[in-house]
Design brief:
mainly alpha
């Protein structure tokens, strides 16, 4: 069984983090998915500064406000 000491746990977590970062760096499809998710999260975390309201019937299609040219 693995050692339960704090330094051993930190070493395992650090190794897992490094392995995860290497995996993401070398796996382009995964990197693309994470990047797109970050872009989407950034877009939807903004206040309604550009005047589109998701309750507007013309905006019920989620992608419509991403392709209308409001974001630069």
């Amino acid at each position: 069984m693995f050692s339960q000491s704090l330094p051993a746990q930190l070493l395992r977590w650090a190794a897992l983090l490094i392995l995860s970062l290497i995996l993401v760096h070398h796996c382009q499809p995964l990197l693309d998915v994470l990047a797109q998710d970050a872009v989407n999260a950034g877009c939807h975390s903004m206040d309604n500064h550009d005047g589109h309201d998701m309750a507007d019937p013309d905006m019920t299609d989620h992608t419509s406000h991403h392709t209308m040219g409001h974001h630069q």
